[in-house]
Amino acid sequence: xxxxxxxxxxxxxxxxxxxxxxxxxxxxxxxxxxxxxxxxxxxxxxxxxxxxxxxxxxxxxxxxxxxxxxxxxxxxxxxxxxxxxxxxxxxxxxxxxxxxxxxxxxxxxxxxxxxxxxxxxxxxxxxxxxxxxxxxxxxxxxxxxxxxxxxxxxxxxxxxxxxxxxxxxxxxxxxxxxxxxxxxxxxxxxxxxxxxxxxxxxxxxxxxxxxxxxxxxxxxxxxxxxxxxxxxxxxxxxxxxxxxxxxxxxxxxxxxxxxxxxxxxxxxxxxxxxxxxxxxxxxxxxxxxxxxx
Length: 293
Description:
The structure is a single chain. By secondary structure, the protein is an alpha+beta fold. It has 2 domains: 4-142, N-terminal domain of MutM-like DNA repair proteins; 156-280, Orthogonal Bundle (Helicase, Ruva Protein, domain 3). It contains 6 helices and 11 strands. The strands form 3 sheets. It has a 5-stranded antiparallel sheet with strand order 2-3-4-8-9. Strand 10 and strand 11 (276-280) form a beta hairpin. The radius of gyration is 20 Å and the shape is globular. The two termini are 26 Å apart. The mean pLDDT is 92.
């Protein structure tokens, strides 16, 4: 699933191509793509037709498009990219993609915005904006999401305090989007490696210094990934122009099983974790003596 850098790449592309454009029509090609919009596809299209996109915003791994005030007031199109969702900007004469789910046509007859999703795990929905737990206005379903480390208003010390209060394993805390958002499996493993910490370390045993180090490492690795266009392991994650990112070439531990650690040469280890995988260097990141159960 795309994490903060990949979603930010898409957000920037949308900001470049669809901002301040009026929506002339919306075609819903597959009902599953708008299943999170409780009123259905016809209502989804009707709510958007004639509206103007005024912002392309993100918090953590969540992306939305702000709309000008309509009959229902200020609201936004929330985009769940899921495992394979793509927001593509393409000219109207371009052949339809095989897995095209939703098409946005604009009043200026310029390029279209298309939501393409092979596995249909993602989707689009319209929601009112609500005050968020971490400040600001977010679409209602994600109002509980915390700020991310790349947010200018992110409070590092407050996030460290929240992590140390969780009483769970450190990696689980990093993945908890209500504590700190944007960090997923890939960048959690990379940040933990940079901070020389094991993901099973109990958060209550984490020092403030270690907490700041791992969150700073997460910020740095995600900034580097953003510069590289994100991490693409296949053709499913692309930017709005259909191009893949290449940060996978710079990963130190994630997906590097049995390859030498870039720091000490020890073979990277893979362990099962929450129906996924964790990748660590056994030497640089020794398991805690009493890992959290």
